[in-house]
Hints:
Layout: E1 2-5, E2 12-15, E3 22-23, E4 38-45, E5 48-55, E6 61-67, E7 72-74, E8 81-86, E9 91-96, E10 102-107, E11 111-114, E12 119-120, E13 126-132, E14 137-142, E15 149-155, E16 159-164, E17 171-176, E18 186-190, E19 195-198, E20 207-213, E21 219-225, E22 236-242, E23 248-254, E24 258-261, E25 267-272, E26 277-282, E27 287-292, E28 307-308, E29 314-321, E30 325-332, H1 337-343
Antiparallel strand pairs: 1-2, 2-30, 3-4, 4-5, 5-6, 7-8, 8-9, 9-10, 11-13, 12-13, 13-14, 14-15, 16-17, 17-18, 18-19, 20-21, 21-22, 22-23, 24-25, 25-26, 26-27, 28-29, 29-30
Amino acid sequence: METYVDDKTGYEIRVLTDGVMHTKPYFDTETTTPDDTRAFATESLEGGKRLWAVDVTTGEKDLLVELGAGDRFCAPLSRDVGYVFRGKEKTINRCDLATGQIEPLADLPFCRAATSGHTEFKNGMLAASYKHERAYYVLAVTDPVSGESEIVHRTDQLTNHTQACPGDDESLLHINETGGDALQRMWMFNVREGIDRPYFIEKLDDWVTHECWTRSGDHVMFIKCKAATGRTSDPDELWYGSRDGQSFRCVGKGHYHHGAPDVTERWIVADDTRTGTITLLDTETGENHLLASGLKPNGGAEHCHPSFNRRGDMVLLTLPRPGKGVQVGGIDLGQVEAWKSERH
């Protein structure tokens, strides 16, 4: 396994993969196996993808599952299993994160395509968004025991980034995806009430993006882009919102584009595609700690999308390095004195 030392921070960065194109999973999914010994890495191939489980110490890797066109993988937050949606067959399948064994759970005959991964409510029910066979968009909840699915919401808005709250059985975060700014991006559907409400009412010049639940499900983390929009020099902001959408607070200011919270909710890791930096934010002090530099992506497929392992002591990220391809990397936070002194 290759390692290198960042020029600006002096921190060692592990390069967990090699080849042409490997990326880490998105924020709606865990990035490691339940014991944190292996990280997930998606290898892009012509006609499909391969999901690998890579040892974070040695770099040795095992093929977990092959993913074809329209397939999606997600390992819900704080859960020990993953789910694979098969686009061709229109099925939800449970995936053993140790062996890659696939177990069919449900058929989705109403579905043209899944527009999000499959995440779990506290009670184990699955939720996702889909493009319906009649071309509008739906939210649906699936019972993994009976295999029965129920469409709970229909809309003409392109709906994705859908994430079930891991802390209750009813709060379903979903996104009005415009491909850029939205007048109202974040929505919260209450499954019990059958009501869809805006989450964090946006003003005209707000640019809200890259939202995800904390592992407890008590808060939603999101970024309010400011400098990133190019319309102002004001710093970007990281926010926490309560589950019920009744309270919001800015927890950090700096150069941010994508972010994710750790298990304690004190620390947030974020990238900035303009500066090529990875930042560790202490939400209690508001202090930003530079972790890595020189990681400038060429397009959205190469965005770093950093997030934490389950324990919160390692950052996993996509590494776009000139002349080195795009790989999955890891940063051991034990090197960061500010983090180490507070965590231990």
